[in-house]
Design brief:
This is DUF983 domain-containing protein. The chain is mostly helical and 164 residues long. The protein has one domain (22-137). The chain contains 4 helices and no strands. The protein has helices at 22-30, 68-91, 96-128, 146-151. The relative contact order is 0.17. The chain binds zinc ion. Zinc ion (ZN) is lined by residues 34, 36-37, 39-40, 53, 55-56, 58.
């Protein structure tokens, strides 16, 4: 019995690189690592994503995290802090000065601490789903987009195809 019964018929220069799974991509992004290789760092500064991974070359500049990370951080921190404040207020005799000083500081610290990991996780999510420019992986053949079809070598090799 042979294992080479499924021939796609496509010309292959080499094996296509495999895309990392959803959960692992998100986890790697949460830890600030490249979702593709898990080695390179994706953040150059606090919330500034590097244009590409320095290890595997995955292009990161086309991520569209936008406002999703702050929304997620607000959702997490508000539920966490709000719940604990209510629990402490109901169950313990906590002085007002503590409530007014500790919780704003804790909220700020939690929000700042979660912003980068959550943004990394969102980038990992977009990579795993192949969104935006993440459809092309490093080492794979570039997908011929509409611009390439229109302005590619076929239109410039003197055949007159694609000329205006
Ligand atoms: Zn990488």
């Amino acid at each position: 019995m042979t294992s080479h019964t499924r021939d796609t018929g496509l010309p292959m220069d080499g094996p296509e690189p495999a895309r990392t799974g959803l959960v692992r991509s998100i986890a790697r992004g949460f830890l600030g690592r490249c979702p593709h290789c898990g080695e390179g760092r994706i953040f150059g500064r606090f919330l500034k994503v590097r244009p590409e991974c320095t290890v595997c070359g995955l292009e990161l500049h086309h991520h569209r995290a936008d406002d999703l990370p702050p929304y997620i951080v607000i959702f997490i921190v508000a539920h966490l802090v709000g719940y604990v404040i209510l629990e402490m207020e109901m169950g313990y005799d906590v002085p007002l000065w503590f409530q007014l000083s500790f919780w704003p500081a804790a909220t700020l610290a939690l929000a700042l601490g979660l912003l980068q990991p959550v943004k990394g996780a969102v980038v990992g999510l977009q990579y795993a789903l192949g969104m935006h420019g993440f459809a092309t992986l490093p080492g794979s053949r570039p997908a011929a987009g509409p611009e390439e079809t229109r302005l590619g070598p076929a239109g410039l090799d003197g055949t007159g195809i694609g000329r205006a």
